[in-house]
Amino acid sequence: MHAVYPLLLGALLFAVGLYGVLARRNAITVLMAIELLLNAVTVNLVAFGALLRDRFNTGQVFTLFVITLAAAETGLGLAIVLMIYRQRGNAQIDGQRELAEPLGGPRDELQPGAGAPAVGPDAEVEDEPAAGRALEPTKAAR
């Protein structure tokens, strides 16, 4: 058997997986595209291992490592996606720019930025710190 056929299949799988990673917006489809990329690598490793016919079967050994890596990536990736889906209600990648939990609890999820301090170059600088304002009522009581 010629080595062209499995190598062509591996290149085709890699191209489809790369398109899926770059063009898709759903996290589950991106994970599936990453799996296609890893499967393309395994096909190429087995094809080159059969082509070179070395004594130690390094193509097959590296294929086992890639399969193990793919299984771990799938488990962790799906766990992360499920946590994000439970917390935010969708698995779209574009909407997940901010992965931190809201600071003020459930109210912040409904009103992002409510009660959050302004940070940035055009944020207003307070003259008096908040601790100083908190002591004003006690000074007035004396």
UniProtKB/TrEMBL annotation:
Catalytic activity: a quinone + NADH + 5 H(+)(in) = a quinol + NAD(+) + 4 H(+)(out)
Localization (cell): Cell membrane; Membrane
EC category: translocase
Entry superkingdom: Bacteria
Transmembrane segments: 33-52, 64-85
Keywords, ordered alphabetically: Cell membrane, Membrane, NAD, Oxidoreductase, Quinone, Translocase, Transmembrane, Transmembrane helix, Transport
Chain segments carrying region Disordered: 96-142
Classification via InterPro entries: NADH_UbQ_OxRdtase_chain4L/K, NUOK/Mnh_C1-like
Gene Ontology molecular function, alphabetical: NADH dehydrogenase (quinone) (non-electrogenic) activity; quinone binding
EC number: 7.1.1.-
Membrane topology annotation: Multi-pass membrane protein
HAMAP family noted in UniProt: NDH1_NuoK
Job of this protein: NDH-1 shuttles electrons from NADH, via FMN and iron-sulfur (Fe-S) centers, to quinones in the respiratory chain. The immediate electron acceptor for the enzyme in this species is believed to be a menaquinone. Couples the redox reaction to proton translocation (for every two electrons transferred, four hydrogen ions are translocated across the cytoplasmic membrane), and thus conserves the redox energy in a proton gradient.
Name of the protein: NADH-quinone oxidoreductase subunit K
Species whose genome carries this gene: Actinocrinis puniceicyclus
Encoding gene (name): nuoK
